[in-house]
Amino acid sequence: MKSILKIFGILCLSIFVFTACSDDDDPADSDFFIGRYTGKVAYTSSGETKSNDNGFVQVVKVGNKYNFLFSDDIPDITGIEIEKNDNTAVMVGSTDTHYIRINASKLTILYLKDNASWTADTNR
User: Fold this and answer.
1) Which pTM was predicted?
2) Which residue ranges make up each domain of the chain?
3) What are phi and psi of 88, to 5 degrees?
């Protein structure tokens, strides 16, 4: 009986995990979001350039903080705050400048910090 309950519990958890974030979920509408956007990603810093037309950005959102995890050994961008129910972050400052727009189907990033630049033009 215990093994049947364990199997049932694992099955229910699996169904929840696989259906929790569908491709039409807008990250701005929820406090927790994980999604993968694929397309062109690039990074340039001190003469080093990494670029891939078929790369990806894994987006992890908890609360108002977003983390952008890049493919191709491109450094990640973490801790970006975007207000709930908003899809765009724009900041011009002394240490970093960025434009990030994210919705259910598209992610666009231009991020400049410490003489390095990240770009992404991706879709989900």
Assistant:
1) 0.76
2) 3-123
3) -135, 140
